[in-house]
Design a protein that fits this description.
Elements: H1 2-16, H2 21-47, H3 65-69, H4 72-87, H5 94-123, H6 143-166, H7 170-175
Helix pairs in contact: 2-4, 2-6, 4-5, 5-6
Length: 187
């Protein structure tokens, strides 16, 4: 029985990085773009509409403000992004994998910052003598701007990785475990 339970997750990861890689990447990119929608809506609310920072809560934060105040929304996005980058990594080869790994490393730090905020919100005990949950980098940079920066530095290598993955050189194509970069592979 132990072999079956350990083989099943490995088989699922293999499928996600093989025959299901295109579908998994599309689903993952949907989550990534939803995350961007949150941050871009918040930026629009702040800098175009002129709303005060506490009222600028993004798309889902408007009808469900507890998602923002509890840090559940952005911690959830950060965790899903970290897991997606990690789970889908072995489907990338060569240069695309290097860029995907860079995005994973950057997202790991981004996730830690959101975890720190989530813990503070759940315990109602802000750190660093702050009045509200505060991340490490937020001690130096404003929160909205900081998270736009974090999302950008994760997203840029991810986009480069996707481009290289879908248009691989011959060496990377030969090493690929999926059909994404083959003619007709990404429909």
């Amino acid at each position: 029985m132990a072999v079956m339970t350990t083989a099943l997750p490995a088989a699922a990861v293999a499928a996600l990085n093989g025959r299901l890689h295109q579908l998994a990447l599309r689903a993952f990119m949907f989550v990534v773009l939803a995350h961007w929608a949150e941050h871009l809506a918040q930026a629009y609310q702040l800098w175009v509409l002129g709303w005060p920072r506490p009222q600028a809560r993004g798309v889902l934060g408007m009808p469900f403000p507890w998602l923002v105040s509890s840090e559940a929304l952005h911690y959830g996005y950060a965790l899903v992004m970290l897991l997606g980058l990690w789970l889908l990594r072995s489907g990338f080869a060569g240069h695309a994998r290097a860029w995907w790994t860079a995005a994973l490393v950057l997202q790991f730090w981004h996730h830690l910052e959101h975890l720190l905020l989530f813990v503070q919100a759940q315990t109602a005990h802000p750190f660093f003598g702050a009045a509200v949950p505060t991340s490490v980098a937020q001690l130096v940079f404003p929160r909205v701007e900081l998270h736009l920066f974090y999302n950008s530095i994760v997203f840029i290598p991810m986009v480069i990785a996707m481009y290289l993955h879908l248009r691989p050189n011959e060496r990377d194509l030969a090493a690929a475990r999926c059909a994404c970069g083959r003619p007709g592979g990404w429909l």
